[in-house]
Backbone:
């Protein structure tokens, strides 16, 4: 299945998805409420079998907080990028995909630690690198009072 066919297949799973044919990968933008369902379908469907979560990247877009998932099928050798974002900066929550891909456990903890995005139904959501006295240092509105300016 090439990127165009992959995009068409994903469109057949739901009309709420925005598909973009990237230079290298098919990109799918989905609402946070539909993320878990789409991820599960892409993992379980025999035509796609996305069995490998390559990465989860947290992004602060300024007004929104977002996530970018790179997933891969080791059987079919294709990759898809899934993007989602929330405008709730006070209590950003997105469903965990750690029940779909075990690798998401640490990826989601890292995103939580550095950006403050909470993952609903995560089995062990706690800070990975920093203690609770830190804020979320990858947010654009983060202020570090200990920074020395010259």
Residues:
């Amino acid at each position: 299945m090439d990127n165009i066919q992959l995009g068409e297949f994903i469109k057949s799973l739901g009309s709420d998805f925005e598909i973009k044919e990237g230079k290298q990968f098919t990109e799918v933008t989905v609402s946070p409420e539909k993320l878990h369902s789409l991820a599960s379908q892409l993992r379980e469907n025999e035509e796609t079998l996305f069995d490998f979560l390559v990465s989860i990247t947290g992004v602060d877009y300024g007004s929104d907080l977002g996530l970018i998932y790179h997933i891969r099928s080791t059987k079919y050798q294709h990759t898809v990028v899934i993007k989602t974002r929330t405008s709730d900066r006070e209590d950003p929550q997105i469903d965990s995909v750690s029940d779909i891909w075990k690798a998401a456990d640490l990826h989601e903890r890292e995103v939580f630690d550095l950006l403050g995005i909470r993952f609903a139904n995560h089995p062990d959501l706690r800070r990975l690198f920093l203690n609770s006295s830190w804020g979320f240092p990858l947010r654009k509105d983060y202020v570090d009072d200990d920074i020395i300016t010259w």
Summary: The radius of gyration is 16 Å. The longest strand covers residues 52-60. The first helix runs from residue 3 to 13. Residues 3-89 form a domain with the Beta Polymerase; domain 2 fold (CATH 3.30.460.80).
